[in-house]
Amino acid sequence: MEEKLGALGIFGSAVFATGINIVIQTITEKNRPETYITNKEDLLLSHLPTDPFPSDHAAVSAAIAMATLIRAAKTKKKALYRMSGFFWLATATMSFSRVAVAVHRPTDVLVGTAVGVGCASLLI
Question: Are 64 and 14 contacting, i.e. CB atoms less than 8 angstroms apart?
């Protein structure tokens, strides 16, 4: 039962971070970096034009990583620490790649990560 509650908390922190991101996105307006590229065929990634600030990818992945880390600290389980480390590595790699393909600016992923960490810390 404890594992189910832990998993539910991790999932809840991701949902909470998504909700906070949606609120922030409705009150801010920011263009994606790709809008300034003149030749759209040079883009590595094409996608639907949505609000980039803050990054949903960064917020959700950071919320999962942080919630897992907090859960690991509470339960003292080494497997959760390792899983959290993997999630943080995946978050960093994914965030870097989103900036590299001109889908986000560094501030988009940094604020998204902060939202994810904050939401997981508040919820867990």
Answer: yes
pTM of the model: 0.81
Side-chain-facing half-sphere of 73: CA atoms under 13 Å: 9
CB-based contacts of 51: which residues, under 8 Å, 6+ apart? 25, 28, 29, 30
- E strands, 52-116, are none
Question: Residue ranges of the alpha helices (H) in the chain?
Answer: 2-27, 56-75, 78-100, 106-123
Residue in 61, 59, 68 with CA at minimum distance from that of residue 21: 59
Distance CA 31, CA 42 (A): 18
Q: How many CB atoms lie within 10 A of CB 32?
A: 18
124 vs 52: CA distance, rounded Å: 26
- Taking only the tens place, the pLDDT of each residue in 23-43 is 888 887 766 655 555 555 655
Single-letter amino acid, residue 118: G
**Quick one: how far is CA 83 from the chain centroid?**
16
Structure tokens at 5: 């509650």
